[in-house]
């Protein structure tokens, strides 16, 4: 079989899977209904205070740009220097040529404006990159996996508070995803504990702890999960490597980073779950 024919058949298969998932989504209850059945009613969702998005006409190209890890790191630097910056201030994670291209792009989208001696963010203040990253991951579920997805969700719960970064309905199953834009060194044990508490309360079929980093998960994050598991179980389940920096616990809880591709990593997790948990 030629490589072109193989590529065409793979593309056709992916499109057929998307079509089938869309049909299944239309035949199963909405995410609101699935949550209501578990006693969860959405109080707030998808806040826009810190959302760094261009006008609607640029959303598709912006989504495509956000797939690049270096572009996401660049946006973090722009947010960090949002009141005033020069090109060299945001040239940290890519070459000056690539950074200049990124800067031209966000100027064209209206996110950044020129000053006489530099640049500044047009939308201010933006506290962090967190909300924008949550929006992007939700778009991945909608666009790439034909899944209903919401982000930045808050419920009124008596015991377990805080936000659920992302909840999606995938083939009738509820998926909860914790989304971290910080590097591993800025993640603490209480955040892992809160992740487990929310899982215990919501009882999603699939749960993912995602970090937007290409750094190793095995060094710090996996040991923190192992510590939390040892606190909660007499015979704690193992944290097992799927491949590279993807890990699973009992085939339904996953630790994921952004190495290679966020989309490919989510696809690998979903494939692992649906092949082994049923």
Task: Map the helices and strands.
Elements: H1 3-27, H2 31-37, E1 42-44, H3 59-66, H4 69-80, H5 96-108, E2 112-114, E3 119-121, H6 130-145, E4 148-155, E5 163-170, E6 173-180, H7 189-202, E7 206-211, H8 221-232, E8 240-243, E9 246-249, E10 253-257, H9 262-276
Parallel strand pairs: 6-7, 7-10
Antiparallel strand pairs: 1-4, 2-3, 4-5, 5-6, 8-9, 9-10
What order do the strands of the largest sheet run in, or round the barrel if closed? 1-4-5-6-7-10-9-8
Low-confidence stretches: none
CATH class value of the largest domain: Alpha Beta
Question: Given the C-alpha coordinates, what overall shape results?
Answer: globular
Tally of helical runs: 9
Main beta-sheet annotation: 8 strands, mixed
Give the total of domains: 2
CATH architecture of the largest domain: 3-Layer(aba) Sandwich
Q: Summarize the amount of helix as a percent range.
A: 40-55%
The name CATH uses for the topology of the largest domain is Trna Endonuclease, Chain: A, domain 1
Terminal Cα span: 33 Å
Strand content: 15-25%
Counting DSSP E segments of at least 2 residues, the number of strands comes to: 10
Mean pLDDT: 91
Q: What would you report as the Rg, rounded to the nearest angstrom?
A: 20 Å
The helix-strand sequence is HHEHHHEEHEEEHEHEEEH
